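INPUT
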Amino acid sequence: MASELDLSRDRLDAPFARRVEELSGENPYACYQCGKCSAGCPFADYMDALPNQVLRLVQLGDASALELSAPWVCASCLACGVRCPKGVDIATTMEALRILALRRGISPAPVTPDRPCPQIALVGAYRKLTP
Amino acid sequence: MKTIAYFPGCAMKDQARPDEAGTLHALALLGYEVTEIPRWNCCGTVYSLAQDDLMRHVGPVRNLVRVQGMGEGRVLTLCAMCYGTLARSARFVAEPERLARINAFLDTEDDFRGGIEVVHLLTLLRDEVGYEKLAAQVKRTLDGLKVGTYYGCVLLRPRLFAVDDPDRPEVMERVVEALGGTPVAFPERTECCGAYLTVGRTDIVGDRVGRILRSARGGGAEVVVTTCPLCQFNLDERRPAGAPTLPVLYLGQLLAWAMGLDEPAVAALVSKEPATGRPVSTGV
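OUTPUT
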């Protein structure tokens, strides 16, 4: 029997998506998966999932997004955010994933500087890569 | 003489000293009395994007409290990254509940009242000095030098804090023109160099830098200029084998040249060993 189709996001019941939304202040469900973020991301080549795919996992409430390397490769350059036709700041979503991973003890690959770095780089790295 | 409070940040006292020296020389000629804010601390270099991460705004806000203590309503930065953290934190903590919490946390400091404007050098040159007045102070023209203008990220993104149109900026090009140079607006000039990934992922940063420098060279640039010390470091020090060898300068170095710092002084600026013991990029 045909019944009404409920497309509300409430049906997903995705606490993970809600948590990411709280931390980032960005609504993951605004994304309609056009892929513009991934097309313009200077770091997409080095990611194990493209930025729009990461956002898709968040939409689905799939916490396996925390195991990806993509958020750690994202350098917060915000190119995705200024180009998003729906105004989603994807880089901020990536930051929320990094922070959730760090708070849950899922660490990124250890960082070992192999060449000298100025303090501006070191401070930036420890603020992004440590809790 | 106009007065302006100045937040240097770490790099201006280390690898970016030529930038600071050249810029302060130029600002003096342009009629500014620049006062370094007292007891400043690190701005944090990267802005925290999380909604609940108030702790990471303490550094920038403490600096803004110092500006407030000077009786100034605005603060100048030369470094793109300092501009980003200070400007964005100033706005983030303006929300009353956050402001109350951060003031409670800062405890021994005066309460931050908000309302401090954060100004980047490029904005000051465009909106207050003006390109004509800048051009009038040129003592030694760049004489058509083809200058690739590299913005990087923080000056242009997010849109709310952009010093110019994030997609088609022109402020740095107009400054180069005012100094007598020929700006080269190459396609990669707004794309990220890799920033702090330079600590652990020199492979990625090397690829990015190669691409940026090839883009600049492809447009005919003889030098590349930037206002971000981390971009300058990456473009210069993470240059992959085979990448174009064109010099990567700070905007302050171009200003120093054009505003007539005598040649030994310019030479000293570009050859001084910084505290890290790493020689600064030479070029002009």
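end of record. The radius of gyration of chain B is 19 Å.
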